[in-house]
Amino acid sequence: MWRLACISLIGFSLSLPVAEHLYAAGEEVSPPLTFVRQFATAQDVNSGPEPLLTQAVNAIAGPPEDPQHPPLLLQRPLAVTTDSSHRLYVTDISGAAVHVFDYLRSKYSVLKGGGPMRSPVGVAADRQGNVYVSDSTLRTVLIFDSKGKFSRYLKRPRGEESYFDGPHGIAIDPASGHIYVCDSPRQMVIVLDRKGGLVTRIGVRSGGSDKGEFRNPTQAAISRDEIAVLDSGNTRVQILDLRGHFRREIKVAYIDNQSGLAMDDDKNIYVSDPELNHLQVFAPDGHMLYDFGETGTKPGQFDHISGLWVDSGHCLYIADTNNRRVEEFRIGSGGVPGC
Predict the structure, then answer these.
(1) Any idea what the CATH number is for the domain that residue 217 is in?
(2) What is the pTM of this model?
(3) Alpha-carbon gap, residue 110 to 274, rounded angstroms
(4) Phi/psi at 234 (nearest 5 deg)?
(5) 205-229 burial string, b = 16+ CB within 10 Å, else e?
(6) Which of 83, 144, 196, 221 is a plausible cystine mate for 263, CB 3.0–4.6 Å?
(7) Range of the domain at 314
(8) CA 231 → CA 124, 185, 218, 235, 319, distances in Å?
(9) For 88-131, what is each residue's pLDDT tens digit?
(10) What domain count does the chain have?
């Protein structure tokens, strides 16, 4: 269906078409996502969301082309997360960098240290503000402290050997501090403690399609006592307990290596489809709640939608890869400070 999102400002109104399909026991429900802002330039952290009129005009005519308009920083954003201070971290696989948008402090920076990154593909933050970045080419995870200073590599406690063949998505259990890393070539999720000690491995080395087995696991997300794993090769999301015991699965029509995955506080599951440029949202029991998005450059549209992250239960961040930006949405209809 097509919904006309009406924007009204001082007697001026404008309707922006947004493609949405909504489900609730076979009936249409209210739109659950509201566009808030985008992050693409250093100036995007210097003020609040653009006025609605400016958003509307830019959506149709494009941003102003003048020397004062800041250049885009992102080349190919892939994964996103926020820390406890609500700083936004974006991995840029083409730029070989992790961008930091600190909206509350009006500051932009880049994570540095530990040698040059090659292919940063995953990012996560713990309760202490430490940031973990997986680099699939370097075959390791880099750790930065809450001030953005490089701390160490996530390797075996003794020696220089890495735990990983090709680390991808990362999720961190806030209660235990355990780090869950999707190692796609090994067909496993590797679980480590805060010090880098091995806790367990989930899956089998050769891969498989049985419960608790994976073929090309690429993303993980945690909500309370459960972890969801994007099992790309089996076109499904598996939901496990935090010890790796299978609970249930959700079959998905299409997933690739750059599809994103997120869970909110209610354990709803978000999966992005880079080919069709839309987001699918599933209830914990697996039935579809809604899908959202379409191809384009306007707010709520995407060109190769990829990484996803839900912050504080009500802010959804989406890596809009080929549009070289991250879009932020509010989940639900209520006004929430900071989103």
Answers:
(1) 2.120.10.30
(2) 0.85
(3) 26
(4) -105, 10
(5) eebeeeebbbbbbbbbbbbeebbbb
(6) 221
(7) 32-58+71-331
(8) 19, 12, 7, 6, 20
(9) 999 999 999 999 999 899 999 999 888 899 999 999 999 999 99
(10) 1
